[in-house]
Amino acid sequence: MCRMAVAIVRGDPVRFVPGIVDSLVKAASNDPYGDALYGERQHRDGWGFLLLGFGGSRRVVYYRSLRPIFEDSATEVVAQALSGLDAGSTVVLMIHARAASTNTPINIPSTHPVMYVTRAGSELYMIHNGSFMKDLIVRELGVDGGFASRFNDTYIANMALAQRLGVDDVDRDALSWLLGRVKTGANLGLALVGGQFVNVVVGSYYRLLGDGKDGVRSTYYKFYRCSVPGGVLYASSTVIDYYRPQFVGDCWVLGNGEYHSYRVDFRGEFTEPMVWRFT
Length: 279
What we know:
Blueprint: E1 2-10, H1 13-29, H2 32-38, E2 47-54, E3 59-65, H3 74-82, E4 90-98, E5 114-117, E6 123-132, H4 134-141, H5 145-148, H6 153-162, H7 172-179, E7 182-193, E8 198-204, H8 214-221, E9 223-228, E10 231-236, H9 237-243, E11 251-253, E12 258-264, E13 274-277
Antiparallel strand pairs: 1-4, 1-10, 2-3, 2-4, 5-6, 6-7, 7-8, 8-12, 9-10, 9-11, 12-13
Helix pairs in contact: 1-3, 1-9, 2-8, 4-6
């Protein structure tokens, strides 16, 4: 399983974004919620991030590593990606620390954010906590099983979603289709890059199984939306409950099945989100 964060920050991202990374590093190195649900206290199977900078200058940094995030120089790597951005810039950050599910490949293509190009030529990036019904999606895609075995379920799911999208938006129907193929959960961060604006979609969904672990499961999968100076932060439960950055303001938990969709234009302006709720 995984820990993750998505942030949209305008004004002084160099001041605040490294603190978000530092909190994720701590959550990945010592996660009581992961230990309680899955017996996994660490998320050590690679990490990565997508950083988009808008405003006075444009920047796209896409980085993935197979090293554990807490044994790498993650905060310094992200800080370097931020260096040189204008003080008034807007930054979109999607960052993820992975704990690979049993019998899934540990390789760079399966390290989040995964990326696939849509039919219209836009790039769809995904970070994900949970699991999808990979075998079902592979059959629906009609791809060779040998090919599919080289990738994890997140890559295959992103591949399938990308083939349903156009240039600009992750539409509600396409996301609904994907959520119908969730095995355990789909805490998601998505960024569609290549149209007139960047579409960022982030939210939470997980299945309750009635197996006596639903209370622990809900605690593990709960996903926070928090106010930060100049923007908003979405983060996994451990990040906020145990390692909350000092500058984070009010936080609240998204409903199970709640997703928020933002548009960020190339001047760095971003909209209030559309809110989608799925059952």
